[in-house]
């Protein structure tokens, strides 16, 4: 018999050094003399991967999950970023690695920088999925992440003359060492065609197109390697490699057509993070990975059990937004058509296995599919959805509750399929991602459902993994915390509160400020390298990093920047708090206003940064290609965190949590998780301003006229004039007339309504920052009071309220 690996290997300086040289030779094919940094980075990745694999096997063999319940997290997006440092940190093998590299004349940080950033997500939703994987491993929950192995992740952003240019992203070209291809794990996925019923009660789907979904597995190491889960991503492949008949007849291009059609499905991530456009390929992607995942988990279940009625005892499936909501119909199809269960039983089982997380209330972001397109791509699912809709409506009518049936129909006016309603009806639990958002879900989009199913909607406030978002990205602060309170907080972030006692300790304060300064110097160097802008590291670093959206109101931040600029120019000799405005974020390629807001920020930056009157009092830096790796540099260096969305519109936010944990004070509206952050850090340690969600709802009912607000505020009025005068667009005076028009005519996101309160709070921050000792105390309290926002806490909540699984 073959002896399996039994215990994880131990990392010593010696073993790492020898292992590295061996990997470099036999896996990379280079000798040390000719190896590039990239070669060394791959060698190190492969070596660390061996350590990960040991733990992976150990975890599986420990039998933790024997006949237990498994969690399946279905997500179109996993924004994982780089994995090398994450694995090193979780396995606690940094010291021997640094030492071994030193002996070879190499520096760890240089090798880490070579790894490509896996950007298989747009923003918050995708990054949340990645943090959840980390926490599920931390808590030893037997879980699988399921998604798509996009060949091209989110586009790379660069600026040309200040305008956003998108370029294809290519994360796989330089070799991704973390995945294992599983060519034997593959499923057939069907599209289109028609349905027939035979006399024996069997349903047949005669597909127009079939492709294969092939599995690629990435191990996800939990804290201290105690548990390792699997992220399984599906890649689409043709069912037959080549059409030989066509090829032999000389028709080379058409012979390759099927291959291209099949591989297109997992080719590229949709770069839109709101507007749910009804694109056929998007629907195919959604069905592709959902079907493969469900087939895979059913196969796994059936190797252990035979009675599908037991499925809900052993399987919990989480739908990350409605993107995998087709799971409701697909699980029913698999149970009924493939495994011959009666529809009604299939429906019962389905509703006990699935749960749905909602991430938005914006009506334009709720997925809908035209019935015609849907029937063309998924003819059987159309029938099943008609059955569910009819059956569900009858069920509700039977209860005699006073609800609007129109609001709960899946098929709206016979024309469109509402995926949110499908997900809701097919789920055991439906959750929002912050207390406010969940409350609004109950009152708005799902109010009718909430009347019928008062226990179904629950809240699970988002969280972030403290491993990546403090331990890994902020070594100076990490080391200080370990010195002060030990290491328990890393695996149990609520323990970070123990450091609250040091908030007024002079020596701790000094070291905390020094750590912040070190991080600011690192960011300043990055700004210099990427933009050529010199910034003063003792200035207030004011950070807004997130996707560009009107509701997130980067525009309000820019208008405030202009107002501050005008004020500085008017009295340069006054007492100014030097500020650096730092922006990062991508706009969806088709979102024209968002792209113009980027151009405005860059235009404003150019004028301000080159105005000698202003000097170091104000600088503006829009860093291109904001991604996970850049976030890891910006966040530890921030003093002020901009969370200024129109109240009621940001479901939660998670950047707000990362920035607070790293000692930035928040300036923000009472929106999403800002509300809960404020409750924990206290009103003195956060700058809250502006309209509340209730105010916004009220204004929207009564109508809002921006003109008197603008004209009544000389500061804002002057800013508005500068937009149309060409002060920031001397090469094209008309460039910002459109933006001005948007603000004058309706201003849906209420930028002008909140401007004055925002401007005032910024001046409060200016004043407070000058008392650096007091500011440091408040920054410390932000770090020590937000331990609750660990994704470990979030996952404990899902485990208890949604999945019903035990945790470590
Ligand atoms: C849908 C259909 C077609 C194409 C794209 C999409 C699509 C893709 C991504 C729709 C939405 C998204 C992403 C949404 C998102 O990131 N939402 C954010 O989720 C975070 C985690 O819960 C919250 O913190 C943010 O408040 C929320 O905006």
TrEMBL record:
Pfam families: Phosphorylase. The modification N6-(pyridoxal phosphate)lysine is found at residue 658. This is Alpha-1,4 glucan phosphorylase. Its EC number is 2.4.1.1. GO terms for cellular component: cytoplasm. Its cofactor is pyridoxal 5'-phosphate. It catalyses: [(1->4)-alpha-D-glucosyl](n) + phosphate = [(1->4)-alpha-D-glucosyl](n-1) + alpha-D-glucose 1-phosphate. Phosphorylase is an important allosteric enzyme in carbohydrate metabolism. Enzymes from different sources differ in their regulatory mechanisms and in their natural substrates. However, all known phosphorylases share catalytic and structural properties. Allosteric enzyme that catalyzes the rate-limiting step in glycogen catabolism, the phosphorolytic cleavage of glycogen to produce glucose-1-phosphate, and plays a central role in maintaining cellular and organismal glucose homeostasis. Belongs to the glycogen phosphorylase family. One of its GO terms (molecular function) is glycogen phosphorylase activity. It comes from Methylobrevis albus. Keywords: Allosteric enzyme, Carbohydrate metabolism, Glycosyltransferase, Pyridoxal phosphate, Transferase. SUPFAM superfamilies: UDP-Glycosyltransferase/glycogen phosphorylase (SSF53756). Signal peptide: none annotated. The keyword Membrane does not apply. The keyword RNA-binding does not apply. It comes from the Bacteria. Coiled coil: none annotated. CDD domains: GT35_Glycogen_Phosphorylase. GO terms for biological process: glycogen catabolic process.
């Amino acid at each position: 018999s073959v002896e399996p690996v039994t215990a994880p290997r131990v990392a010593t300086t010696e073993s790492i050094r020898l292992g590295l040289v061996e990997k470099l030779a036999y896996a990379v094919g280079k000798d040390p003399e000719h190896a590039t940094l990239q070669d060394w980075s791959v060698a190190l990745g492969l070596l660390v991967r061996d350590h990960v694999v040991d733990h992976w096997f150990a975890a599986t063999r420990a039998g933790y999950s024997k006949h237990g319940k498994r969690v399946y997290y279905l997500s179109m997006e996993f924004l994982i970023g780089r994995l090398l440092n994450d694995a090193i940190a979780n396995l606690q093998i940094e010291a021997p690695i640094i030492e071994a590299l030193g002996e070879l004349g190499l520096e760890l940080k240089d090798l880490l920088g070579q790894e490509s950033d896996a950007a298989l997500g747009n923003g918050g939703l995708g990054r949340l999925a990645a943090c959840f994987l980390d926490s599920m491993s931390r808590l030893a929950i037997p879980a699988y992440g399921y998604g798509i192995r996009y060949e091209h992740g989110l586009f790379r952003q660069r600026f040309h003359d200040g305008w956003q240019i998108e370029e294809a992203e290519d994360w796989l070209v330089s070799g991704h060492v973390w995945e294992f291809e599983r060519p034997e794990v593959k499923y057939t996925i069907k599209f289109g065609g028609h349905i027939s019923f035979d006399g024996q009660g069997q349903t047949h789907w005669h597909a127009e197109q079939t492709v294969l979904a092939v599995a690629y597995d990435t191990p996800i190491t939990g804290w201290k390697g105690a548990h390792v889960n699997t992220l399984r991503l599906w890649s689409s492949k043709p069912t037959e490699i080549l059409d030989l008949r066509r090829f032999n007849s000389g028709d080379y291009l058409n012979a390759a057509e099927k291959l291209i059609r099949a591989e297109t499905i997992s080719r590229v991530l949709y770069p839109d993070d709101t507007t749910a456009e009804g694109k056929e390929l998007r629907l195919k992607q959604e069905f592709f990975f959902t079907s493969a995942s469900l087939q895979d988990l059913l196969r796994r279940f059936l190797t252990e059990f035979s009675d599908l009625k037991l499925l809900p005892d052993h399987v919990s499936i989480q739908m990350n937004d409605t993107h995998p909501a087709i799971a409701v119909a697909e699980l029913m199809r698999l149970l009924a058509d493939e495994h011959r269960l009666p529809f009604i039983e299939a429906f019962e089982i389905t509703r006990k296995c699935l749960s749905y997380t909602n991430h938005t209330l914006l009506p334009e972001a709720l997925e809908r599919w035209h019935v015609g397109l849907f029937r063309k791509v998924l003819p059987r699912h159309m029938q099943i959805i008609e059955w569910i809709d009819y059956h569900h409506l009858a069920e509700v009518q039977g209860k005699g509750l006073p609800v609007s049936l129109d609001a709960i129909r899946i098929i709206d006016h016979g024309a469109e399929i509402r995926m949110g309603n499908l997900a809701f009806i097919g789920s055991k639990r439906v959750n929002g991602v912050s207390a406010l958002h969940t409350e609004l879900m109950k009152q708005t989009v799902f109010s009718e459902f909430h009347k019928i199913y008062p226990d179904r909607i629950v809240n699970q406030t988002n969280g972030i993994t403290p491993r990546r978002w403090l331990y890994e990205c902020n070594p100076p602060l990490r080391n200080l915390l370990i010195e002060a309170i030990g290491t328990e907080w890393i695996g149990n972030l609520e323990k970070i509160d123990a450091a609250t006692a040091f908030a007024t300790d002079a020596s701790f304060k000094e070291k905390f400020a020094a750590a912040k300064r070190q991080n600011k110097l690192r960011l300043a160097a990055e700004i210099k390298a990427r933009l050529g802008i010199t910034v003063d590291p003792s200035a207030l670093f004011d950070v807004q990093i997130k996707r560009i959206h009107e509701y997130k109101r980067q525009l309000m931040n820019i208008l405030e920047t202009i107002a501050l600029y005008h004020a500085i120019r008017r009295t340069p000799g006054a007492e100014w708090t030097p500020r650096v405005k730092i922006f990062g974020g991508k706009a969806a390629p088709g979102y024209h206003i968002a792209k113009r807001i980027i151009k405005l920020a860059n235009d404003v930056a150019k004028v301000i940064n080159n105005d000698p009157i202003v000097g170091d009092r104000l600088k503006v830096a829009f860093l291109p290609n904001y991604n996970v790796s850049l976030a890891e540099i910006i966040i530890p260096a921030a003093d002020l965190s901009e969370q200024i969305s129109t109240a009621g519109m940001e479901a939660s936010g998670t950047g707000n949590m990362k920035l607070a944990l790293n000692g930035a004070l928040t300036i923000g509206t009472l929106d999403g998780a800002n509300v809960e952050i404020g409750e924990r850090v206290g009103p003195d340690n956060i700058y809250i301003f502006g309209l509340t969600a209730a105010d916004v709802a009220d204004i929207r009912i009564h109508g809002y006229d921006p003109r008197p607000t603008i004209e009544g505020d000389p500061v804002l009025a002057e800013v508005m004039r500068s937009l149309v005068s060409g002060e920031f667009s001397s090469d094209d005076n008309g460039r910002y007339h459109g933006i001005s028009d948007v603000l004058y005519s309706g201003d849906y996101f209420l930028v002008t309504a909140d401007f004055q309160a925002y401007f005032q709070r910024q001046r409060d921050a200016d004043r407070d920052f000058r008392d650096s000792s007091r500011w440091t105390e408040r920054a410390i309290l932000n770090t020590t009071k937000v331990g609750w926002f660990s994704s470990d806490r979030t996952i404990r909540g899902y485990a208890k309220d949604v999945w019903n699984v035990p945790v470590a």
